[in-house]
Amino acid sequence: MAFPPNTVYEDGNYYHLTFPIIVKNGKEWILSLMAERKYHVYLENGNELEYNRTVDLDLADAVDIRGAPNFDQMYEANQFNIFGRFHEMYAYNGMIFVVYSKGVKEEVARQYSPGNMEEWGTFIHGIPRFLAVFDQAHQLLFKDIPMPAGIHLTPVINSNGEIMAIKNQEHRGVEEDIVTVYKLKLATR
């Protein structure tokens, strides 16, 4: 599997680790890299995966990641660069679902202290997440659908099309001895 073309990583800067999201969708493999709001489609060809195309969510109001010349400069250069990115991807019933955030402008992020773990955690966990829906041909059907706050999504979607999520206890400020699991069912009106 070749690295996809035309990524932000080609400019020689360091953009955190890639932390890929990989989803198998029939004979397709879908790859998303952390620093981008797009995904790359690969097709199975025998024992190989061949690059087919890139699908860009095209969010004009999202914050872009900033690169740094090397790893040592990454943290300082990007401490307040809360960039938009894909968090989860699901393939189900002929659709591709993408959960993403748009990031936060630097002047807003600077109002919070990364040194204050409670304050910073509340800020980070409060960043809104949204859902985009693509059809099997990778055409965008919907985007900017707000996702519920106060949950951690998992990469699991069951056979009923329900996304498994767990309660983010830090969001509510109450720690419990139990784990609350939610099933998010996607439906159309």
Describe this structure in words.
With 189 residues, the protein is mainly beta. The chain has one domain (8-148). The protein is 13% helix and 42% strand. It is built from 4 helices and 11 strands. The protein has helices at 71-78, 106-109, 117-125, 169-172, and strands spanning 21-25, 28-32, 38-45, 48-56, 82-92, 95-104, 129-135, 140-146, 151-157, 162-167, 181-185. The strands form 3 sheets. A 4-stranded antiparallel beta sheet has the order 1-2-3-4, with no helix packed on it. A hairpin with a 2-residue loop joins strand 3 (38-45) and strand 4.
Describe the secondary-structure layout.
Layout: E1 21-25, E2 28-32, E3 38-45, E4 48-56, H1 71-78, E5 82-92, E6 95-104, H2 106-109, H3 117-125, E7 129-135, E8 140-146, E9 151-157, E10 162-167, H4 169-172, E11 181-185
Antiparallel strand pairs: 1-2, 2-3, 3-4, 5-6, 6-7, 7-8, 9-10, 10-11
Provide the number of structural domains.
Answer: 1
Order of helices and strands: EEEEHEEHHEEEEHE
Structural class: mainly beta
Percent of residues in β-strands: 35-45%
Overall radius of gyration:
18 Å
Oligomer state of the chains in this structure: single chain
**Distance between the amino and carboxyl termini:** 39 Å
The tally of helices reads 4
The total of beta strands comes to: 11
Average residue-wise pLDDT:
89
Strand order of the largest sheet: 1-2-3-4
Helix content: 10-25%
Uncertain segments are none
Overall geometric form:
globular
Largest sheet: 4 strands, antiparallel
What are its keywords?
11 strands; about 190 residues; 4-stranded antiparallel beta sheet; about 40% strand; about 15% helix
